Amino acid sequence: MAKLNDEMKTLLNEVPICVFATADKSGIPNAVPIHYHKIMGDAKIMLVDNFMKKTLLNINANPNVSISVWKEKTGYQFKGTARVETSGDNFDSGTEMVKKSNPKGNPKGVVIIDIDSIYITSPGPEAGNKVE
Predict the structure, then answer these.
(1) What is the structure's pLDDT at 132?
(2) Which of 25-63 are b and which e, b meaning 16 or more Cβ less than 10 Å from the residue's Cβ?
(3) Which CATH number fits domain 6-120: 2.30.110.10, 3.40.50.2000, 2.60.40.10, 2.40.50.140?
């Protein structure tokens, strides 16, 4: 299992948008921008579902996902498996996050990603390398 280090956590906390990629059962990709995201530990990230349609269908058919984040010349790709939650503590936390900045927001659920690998997307000779 891969773990988020302090640099990765700082980057995730600073970026306003991350890109969330899924694929359907045939492998057709789908990538969407996600504003509301939260680190849930050293190997778990939560994304809030406000408008997901194809993304949810893809997760149900194929739970393998990827999140990409970058700022200036530092970037990472986090790969793992996803599950959707529409009630409970995680959903409540995601709803609270949205309501703080958009009181009229109405999240449909949260996506919990268990990270199993991390790759460098920063430009340079390390680009594409897996973080061990």
Answers:
(1) 85
(2) eeeeeeeeebebbbebeebebbbbbbebeebbebbeebb
(3) 2.30.110.10
